[in-house]
Amino acid sequence: MQYCSTRGGVQGWDFQDVLLSGYAPDGGMFMPETLPTLTPDTLRSWSSLSYPQLVTEVCSLFIPTELIPRADLDSLVSAALSGFAVPGVVSLARLKGGLCVLELFHGETLAFKDLAMTCTVRFLDYFLRKESRRAIVLVGTSGDTGGSAIQSARGLGGVDVVVVYPRGRITLVQEKQMITCLEDNIHVFAADGSSDDIDVPIRRLFSDQELVKQHSLMSLNSVNWSRVMVQLAHFIYAYLHVSGLEQAETGAPLPALEMVVPTGGAGNIAAGCIVKQMGIPLCLVAMTNANDIVHRTVQSGDFSMATNVTQTMAPAIDIQDPYNMERVFWLLSGRDGALVKGMMEEFQHSHRHTLPEALHKQLSQVLTAGAVRDEGIVETMQRCWKENQYLLCPHTAVAVWHHYHYPPTAGVNRCCIATASPAKFQAAAQKAGLTLDLPEAVRALDKMSTRYLALERGQDWGKDWECMLKQHIQAIGSARQRGVAYYSTVECN
Fold this sequence. Notes:
Strand content: 5-15%
């Protein structure tokens, strides 16, 4: 199994190379050069596996045993997924009206990011220990990714984690899960602007190959293939348990399953598209909030940012640059790196692009899409509680809205993905007139000390942030070489 860039400039990398990277050197994103096919017999043989066992089987398709022997892979995944709040790691809630919700939020930070992040960090630590290396992880977050990266990597000897979040645009719980971590290897920056604003200087830093090599700079955003790879498992898990596969006759066509996915950076929906190409008949629905670029792209081929990122009740998907759509475009264009390179460079330059007609046709055959405003989120949270006494987070409500307004096709089962616990979104619950019983871990955040550094918006904020982050990364690397704690050298908030 080897990997290539979606922009055609890199081929023949192995999983370790890709894991210890971010964007490819040509600015693209890594993808497997070939995808394995999942046969009906394979799927049936997996139907009795636990979730961690299924993750191990999926990862083994993409990680050769010469890099991680199977026994080590079993141990790494088992350890990564051992601390979740429910015995099965994930859980299915079967509610009234045929509503089925796949709960992916039972990890330490109460968000689905924990599933892939914990595994990816274990893989990273495994390789760094083998080679006695250090790495600096650079993460931009719209709310959940940063906290998950911090909790997964806190205290690790070989990794420093640098997280940048948009101040004032995430919930207090999301913010406190980041700034209350006082481990010496965790470095949190609060930036003025949106998560899309943050992505611009981060992408430029990853294109600085001297900086990347000098400090082993890598990403734990879903830019990193390992994150997307692990996320394949929850699409397969849903298929095995919701599609009706067990009732289907041997030799009959596989039953279809519709999966409704709250969509921001599009890492989850990209994972769904990959699973579909591996042979599982998924009907994928990408649901956005008012930041509806994915919806517009699917509906009309208009892959263009709005003027500003709209702040909504579902802040983790307040994104106008769904960077993982590059992976989807590459898959659906027949792996045409030159086409994708031209498209994405135009989009990054002008923030606008109209999909080629053939690509748009392919996309609209693979994805359905919709967009929900805050009023729809509130209405959905209220209805689900009234009918089921089941509280949705606002992101999950974006998916469930589709269920309430578009009944499933006869004979096709449906599963909505729940990406976060409602406990992280107290203001949304209050706006919907619903009460929230907070977990003790969330209540405890209010009493904890905090630490972060501010990135203030200047006249040329993009360049300012790039320069400031670069200086901090270099200083963190220098402090580690001298064997001192970085935070002893800077003044923190």
